[in-house]
Amino acid sequence: MQLSEQEIIRREKLQALRELNINPYPADLFPVNHTSKQVKENFSEGKKVIVAGRLMSVRDQGKAAFAELQDSEGRIQLYFNRDVICPEDDKTMYNQVFRKLTDLGDFIGIEGETFLTKVGAKCIRVDKFTFLSKTLRPLPLPKTDEEGHVFDAFVDPELRYRMRYVDLVVNPQVKEVFIKRTKLFNAMRTFFNNAGYMEVETPVLQAIPGGAAARPFITHHNSLDIPLYMRIANELYLKRLIVGGFDGVYEFSKNFRNEGMDRTHNPEFTAMEIYVAYKDYNWMMEFTENLLEYCAYEVNKTTETTFGEHTVNFKAPYARVTMTDAIKQFTGFDITGKTEAELFEAAKSMGIEVDETMGKGKLIDEIFGAKCEGNFIQPTFITDYPKEMSPLCKSHRDNPDLTERFELMVCGKEIANAYSELNDPIDQRERFENQMKLAEKGDDEANGIIDEDFLRALEFGMPPTSGLGIGMDRLMMFLTNNASIQEVLFFPQMKPEKKQLDLSEDEKLIVSLLKTENNQALSTLKEKSALSGKKWDAAMKGLAKHGLTKVIVDGENKNVVLN
């Protein structure tokens, strides 16, 4: 393993600590009794406190030093005085351990007394400090100049998502997103529990991937010697529980879909599904808007949220528009009674990419997605979907070609999907068989396996039921103004990490400048780097050899870009 100069130095310090009989990774409990937030909020001078966290900055003044300690709730200022820490003749603990062997990022425990500095800052005078964990890699800490400009910020998305543990340390504001995520889940649970519904758990490994039209992940059970599928939805199991006599059940489930990745899709995601007996989709619409109004307020203390350039208000009630009317409004085309061939030609005429594997439902979905979705900014229920799009949904009571289904659109994205659930076992079998035909035709999202056990459950009788599914990650994006799903997941799925290149310091400097602003004039980039001509030429040749940069020539203009 190749180590940087900093990493070698830190390992040398590690050894030096051990030679001083200081354990850099002690097993003992450290008796923390305050957090940084508690110290500041309940401040009184002269209070004895014990805190612990990472050392994040040091201003060394020789016999004394000011420092900052960061814990789970923020930062607190520390004051180290050599003669307080080392009242006897031996000054090793301050001169050697603190000043020479302690690095930024190290975990230390502090015992001390609170006081106000001359400028009125709340601070802890350190009586004793304890090494709790020595860090062997330097943190990518941002630097701020006298004018308040920030340099070397840890902002590269790929690095942030891949090393979320570093992101959370050096960009502590990121924590707020995940604190709000927990608030959202807690609020939703409270809403359901107060309504008398029960949280349950259903299998993640399933013999048949059911409950949604999606491509599953496949694995193998060695002992049973059978293929198993990672859950794409928990719908069919929750309905079994309604058959079994529960009036209302819900689950926050990890679902897995072996499909594309983009700013709004991750192959592993969290969904919430709830099923309530003796209800229909009209009742569920009202329930959903009241639920989201409650959750939005609990997360942000307001029903309004900003998402990009839009201000979205989750206060109930929400607009209701049928899918047929939405398509007619934005395309002028009426899908009512149209054949598969007519829908195919209509989609093509609208410039929508279609293929021969698509049935009526998929074609209608493509038309709606391409021409209508993006127009719905405020929360809007799109209702009454064609039957071909909803194999698990009850036929509409007034029009047998439609189903009693709605999706909730916000800022052009679906965040909730709900049905009056199909409980006719004969009708359900026919719908499953139609899905099999689509799968045989080549639709890789159609379910090509009939869940006979679920049909058997329906034959024992399921009461009228309404179900709702909410994409929790996408809802979280809207409530925290994040356009990327990766920002609301602690550990989003990433491409395999590229082998780290052994770059020179000059090469790293040029790459960092291009990451701040890609596609720069060669002369401007050279000036910013402040490298001599010889060093500049060597660094540029090295980057080109690694395939990291290229120079684009346009007449007399030369620009440098990252590959």
From TrEMBL:
Pfam families: tRNA-synt_2, tRNA_anti-codon
PROSITE patterns assigned to the protein according to its UniProt record, in alphabetical order: AA_TRNA_LIGASE_II
Cofactor note text: Binds 3 Mg(2+) ions per subunit.
A GO term, aspect molecular function: ATP binding
Swiss-Prot/TrEMBL catalytic activity: tRNA(Lys) + L-lysine + ATP = L-lysyl-tRNA(Lys) + AMP + diphosphate
GO biological process: lysyl-tRNA aminoacylation
Protein's UniProt keywords contain Magnesium: yes
Record's GO cellular component terms: cytosol
Subcellular location: Cytoplasm
Protein EC: 6.1.1.6
Residues the record lists as binding Mg(2+) 1: E407, E414
Keywords: Aminoacyl-tRNA synthetase, ATP-binding, Cytoplasm, Ligase, Magnesium, Metal-binding, Nucleotide-binding, Protein biosynthesis
Domain Aminoacyl-transfer RNA synthetases class-II family profile: 181-492
Residues annotated for Mg(2+) 2 binding in this entry: E414
Enzyme class: ligase
Cofactor: Mg(2+)
Quaternary structure (record): Homodimer.
PANTHER family per record: LYSINE--TRNA LIGASE, CHLOROPLASTIC_MITOCHONDRIAL, LYSYL-TRNA SYNTHETASE
Family designation: Belongs to the class-II aminoacyl-tRNA synthetase family.
Annotated protein name in UniProt: Lysine--tRNA ligase
UniProt gene name: lysS
